[in-house]
Specification:
Maf protein, about 25% strand, binds thymidine-5'-triphosphate, cytoplasm, hydrolase
Length: about 200
């Protein structure tokens, strides 16, 4: 039995290494645009469930972790920007305000499952056009939900956060660790209480 992260995201892979002593990666194809949910947190969960299920089908008998991160401004979902104009619109909607970042997590093991969504509140300073446009030029927004990376150039935009920092980057490290450790599969994976 192996622990498997269902993700192509290099950031998520780095964070998973903090949550568990050893794991493998399995990337599967999920059409995220085909899935809907009544609110942003529910959407993050549905997408995480779908990524997990797709990888679990390829890795029967293993323990699969799927995650999805969405940004939520007043109940409106910001996914990854389509282009520069979309990214500009996203940064303008985040400027000078507090938004929420939800990461849905689904862990599927033989005979057991954990599903949960972790939310972090992030407050941005008001952004002026020059700093916003310089950030758009950096190329950083385009592969990230909400069009920014708290771990990169957008660190300068952040006035404060409430909740798990790692959740914003894409994987709520301590919650994933604790969920895995509470499952029967933790020992079957060869890990113990000190891991
Ligand atoms: C808000 C925010 C998001 N992000 C990233 C995390 C996720 O990688 C991405 C959201 O897209 P996701 O669809 O959650 O993940 P992904 O497509 O990058 O990877 P995979 O589906 O293969 O697991 O945005 C940051 O890196 N920093 C941030 O501050």
């Amino acid at each position: 039995m192996k622990l498997v992260l269902a993700s192509a995201s290099p950031r998520r892979r780095e964070l998973m290494a903090l949550a568990a002593p050893a794991y493998e990666v399995c990337v599967s194809d999920v059409d995220e645009s085909a899935l809907t949910a009544p609110d942003p947190a529910a959407l993050a969960q549905v997408l995480a469930d779908a990524k997990c299920a797709a990888a679990a089908a390829l890795r029967p008998g293993d323990v699969v972790v799927g995650c999805d991160t969405v940004v939520d401004v007043d109940g409106q979902v910001l996914g990854k920007p389509r282009d520069r104009e979309d990214a500009r619109r996203m940064l303008d909607s985040l400027s000078g305000r507090t938004h929420r970042v939800h990461t849905g997590v689904c862990i599927q093991a033989p005979g057991e499952q954990r599903r949960f969504c972790v939310t972090t509140e992030v407050e941005f300073w008001p952004l002026d056009a020059a700093e916003r446009d310089a950030y758009l030029d950096s190329g950083e927004p385009y592969d990230k939900a909400g069009g920014y990376g708290i771990q990169g150039g957008a660190a300068k935009f952040v006035r404060g956060i409430r909740g798990c920092y790692f959740n914003v980057v894409g994987l709520p490290v301590s919650q994933v660790h604790r969920a895995l450790r509470s499952m029967a599969c933790w020992q079957a994976l060869g890990f113990d209480e000190s891991d």
